[in-house]
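Q: For a teaching session next week I want to show students how multiple molecules come together into a single three-dimensional assembly. I've collected the sequence lines for a complex. Could you give me the predicted structure tokens for the whole thing so I can convert them for display?
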Amino acid sequence: DIQMTQSPSSLSASVGERVTITCRASQSISSYLNWYQQKPGKAPKLLIYGASTLQGGVPSRFSGSGYGTEFTLTISSLHPEDFATYFCQQSYSTVVYTFGQGTKLEI
Amino acid sequence: EVQLVESGGGLVQPGGSLRLSCTASGFTVNDNYMSWVRQAPGKGLEWVSVIYSGDRTYYADSVKGRLTISRDNSKNTLYLQMSSLRPEDTAVYYCARVHKSPYYFDYWGQGTLVTVSS
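A: Of course. Below is the structure for the complete assembly, covering every listed component.
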């Protein structure tokens, strides 16, 4: 199975800062990488699919990049509502989908 | 408006069984790929199972042989039949719609909690 590793596991930042979260795949997954945001007690929400395509309604301060085995999620200027946990997910294998372990973004 | 509503969670003893339901509105379950994802308390997301057209199904190794995904077209509902439950199956279970090509989980339910404990 394809393993997904996120770093860091947690991150402290301030409103207005730029932050980057990294996700690495154990093998090449082309651009089949998705990012989700989850707030406490809520279901995950799709942010980005295909490594870099923003889901409708997601603010443009979110961006994704990468190809192959290394990917990044960047928030250009943190808003208070962005403090949440972020997960990457590979969809290269559609037999076994895999999530990263998550990155908790804290104030 | 697309909506997914899970139900059926609760407390069950180890070795017991439970059936989760996920009722959809705003789209037809049978025309879409659907998945279950779970999250143990304080932990990350774990993919559980997916059902494709022709009722092709796939499972995570951790649940293979114990959990079964299915759907009822007449009720527009996705199911997860859970048997031989273990304490490590304790989690919030989410159903999600799988967007086709590229594949991603675009709509999620609110989740239902399953607790396996004696």
